[in-house]
Give the backbone structure.
Amino acid sequence: MELIPALYVVLPLTGAFLIPVVGYFVKDFQKILSVIITLFLLIYTIWFFAAGYDSPVITKVGGWEAVDGIPIAIYLVYDGLSAFLLLTVSLIAFLSTFYAIGYIKRFTAENNFYALLCLMIAGMNGVVLSGDIFNIYVFLEIAVMASYALVAFGTEKRELEASFKYQVLGGIASLLILFAIGLLYWQTQTLNLADISLVLRSGSHPTALMFTQALLIAGFGLKAAMIPFHAWLPDAHSSAPSPISAMLSGVLIKAIGIYALLRLFFNIFLMTYEVSLLITVLGALSMVAGGLLAIGQGDIKRLLAYSSISQIGYVITGIGIGMLIVVNGGNKTIAALSVAGGLFHLINHAVLKGLLFLNAGAVEYMTGVREFKLLGGLSKKMPVTATTSLGASLGISGIPPFNGFFSKLLIIIAAVRAEFYTLAALAVIMNFVTLGYFLRFQKEIFYSKEEFIGKLLYNKLPGTMKFSMITMVILCVLLSLLVIPCLRDIILNPAVEVLMNTGEYALNITGS
Amino acid sequence: MTVYIMCFILFLVGLYGVLTRHNLIKIVIGFSVMEFSCFLFLALIGYIENGVAPIIKEGLENPVYVDPLPQAMVLTAIVIGLATTAMLLAIAIRIYKKYGTFDIRKVNELRG
């Protein structure tokens, strides 16, 4: 079987088109089609991981071959890093869609919901696969445009306000990125990522490039909600319907924020000390401030959203340490370990935070409220939700058999071995803070003595919601197997190798 | 060079509008100013002195063509910009229906 990268974009895009048209006439069409598409993409991704694809697969859209070594067509590139992100996106997309079948029944306009969800998946897959910087911008806009509409899906006061705030800040980020793309084209006369990389590596290093890099860090940093740029995230992620919160927090900020930063600063630009330091500092700042802001929150979904900022900080810190070591000419194995820790935490956080948002959705579905003050003593009434969220809370606070422990351990070990003792200490301290606010989350919702006063809205949770939550808590335990070398070689190491062999990305693509 | 710097100043003017105005519609207008400064910048970087439109025609002696790629980029970006503005205005109208005002200071359910 041949791998066709275009399928990742074409299938959900077709779904997004068909659902409002056919779904208008055929009952339940929207649910069946979106579940089939996401399940197919998940199986397709896992199949190619099992078959083992080590060389990058390149599709030239339109079939235009390069002339004199100058690429003309728009490239879609499937390599180790893209494959890793695609696995994360497909996994969370399938489980959220399946969960949504039970959850979204109480809203009207189900067709629009599933169509926008498919559009968002198409956009994210496109960003991850694209080998052309302007194409990244186009797919990024597709993904965020769908997410703006989905945040406002409830059309109540809070949802609309959050969506407007999200749109203004997200729009500014997009324009900064567009400006940077213009500057980059001006300097290199090409839009193909591989070609840009070759031009930058062969030529001189103009000062305008610093300005371009600053614009790109600000733009993608806003998309990834790093700390000075985080203001929109708690509103947007807590106002969206829960399956969408799981998608936004779990994968959207990673696929369009962190992935783009990784690809640009490892594979395209020459790494500089200033940029590496800036990324590490922003990461550490997000890690600390996000965690501290999460402590006092009164709304369960806002607490989870602030916690996302903190955990994204861990991912960025891990990657930043790797960059600093590479720039300083240090030990490459420690750098690889640190980057591996960052990427490992990325997939762990996607599953853990996805599960926690689905739990919050289940609590809201049953009780109709989200405030800590009003909730309490639900562990007897909602045993599945209570058990799965306990697993996720322990996982995200780094308690051993769960996956979060291993990824944080890798980052901390790398920080200690590279002699960044402050960062290591901060990571450990923030881990205890995380444990603290998640114990509060558990206690005040499920295990407090004061019972929930109101009446439960439904007798029991729909089966699809339970299935998604149980699958995810099993995944939380199974993902810790990624530290075992043979599994690590299949999933994690190809992604790390793409990042560590910085110049090879361009040579692989233009050479073949 | 001056024209590029002025382009960036236009971008900053739009940003100032977005950050300081209190009216939702004025924020959208500021946003559009930012957008158009980006389009202008993209169109400018493809321009070559005395260049002609990049269409092959008979009867031109060694013509100099302007770069067509930024023009294609601008067209795509304008379409995306249209979608963004439409989306912003749609949400602004829904906010007006719920809150009865366009004033951003009175639209403050979310805090913290």
Remarks:
- The two ends of chain B are 44 Å apart (CA to CA).
- DSSP finds three helices and no strands in chain B.
